[in-house]
Specification:
Blueprint lengths: L16 H4 L6 H6 L1 E5 L3 H13 L3 E6 L23 H12 L4 E6 L2 H4 L2 H6 L2 E4 L4 H14 L3 E7 L2 E7 L13 H12 L2 H8 L7 H19 L8 E6 L4 E6 L15 E8 L4 H12 L4 E13 L6 E6 L19 E8 L20 E6 L2 E8 L4 H10 L5
Parallel strand pairs: 1-2, 1-4, 2-3, 4-5, 9-14
Antiparallel strand pairs: 5-6, 6-7, 7-8, 10-11, 10-12, 10-13, 13-14
Helix pairs in contact: 3-4, 3-10
Amino acid sequence: MSVPHPEVVSLAEGRFARLEAIEWWDQRRLTAAKVLVIGAGALGNEVLKNLALLGVGHVAIADQDHVELSNLSRSVLFRESDEGQPKALCAARALQEIYPGIRVYPLVGNVIAELGLGWFRWADVVVGALDNREARVFVNSACARMDRPWVDGGIEVLQGIVRAFYPPRTPCYECTMSKVDWDLIDKRRSCSLVARRAMAQRGTPTTPTSASVIGAIQAQEVVKILHGMDGMLGRGFFFDGQHHSSYGIDYQIHEDCPWHEAQPEIVSSPDWKWESPLAILAKEAEARLGGLDALDFGREIVERMECLACGLHTPVWRAAEQLGEHELHCSSCGAECSPRVVHSLTPAHPAMQRSARELGLPERDVLWARRGERQLGMELAAESGFEDRCQQQQNQNITP
């Protein structure tokens, strides 16, 4: 007679057991979620750390900066050995150490110049951990065009603010801006490229404590949005750590804000490659719209640099933010150059034979075909092997 073996019952809890004990919590939603985090500084570090702890399955990290020694007192994901390496890559490696099940996509580059709008379309929620108005305006417009909610955060010393937007449904970031805000942006845009570069290098004083508070609230809002809760959408929360106070803010849709109307349809095709001539997109757009007036970029591209002193013109075809210091001055006489920018191309323009890559447009960007008042968004396909390249970048030792 055989003796039955006693049933072995494991008392060990699963990784997310305490979270799943929350009545409304759905860990499957978080596992399937795609979150784009823009900025991997002190605030971005806290957001990313929390998303990994919560088990968010797919995270893209966009940041152009490299780790500096001063970051180590405020950024939980960085180590001394990371100094000189891209923040996005270092943060990606750290997230995989926290939660091996996460898929991370490090995007090293300037958000305005090098982050394709397709990444906003890829995401379920976008998080802004930015330190300037101009980048926030870009992110807000991208989220409005791609129909994605986003959670903005900002910190300075012992204060911080969190705001969530979902245009056109709710007030958006531009609805919160005053005339002073716009004047400051216009002032920066009117400056020469040399002056812009100097202003961009100024830092904001921050503390890890404020970053921890604001980053936690941002991550919490992401969880709410992913669970279908309105949360803070269209509203804000201000935190004053110095005086131990906080308050909520209700925003109103500004009557002149352009992001509260229906946006054009967006289509994609694996045939619309980043390295294919734009003429391919133009031909498809003509067929879909019954003609084509222009392909709009949705961002500024410098066609050439013009020296007003000696008259030399130098072809560029890159975003202003991508230009090296040596390109801001004339190679002939050394005078400061002025950029000639373009925002669109007509079907007959010779540059239509160039690829989006050759024109300085980012991978996975969305171009806007226009005929009369009709528009059609056309998303460029990611190059094959992109995810594998991301994984290889995280696994290899990166030197500055």
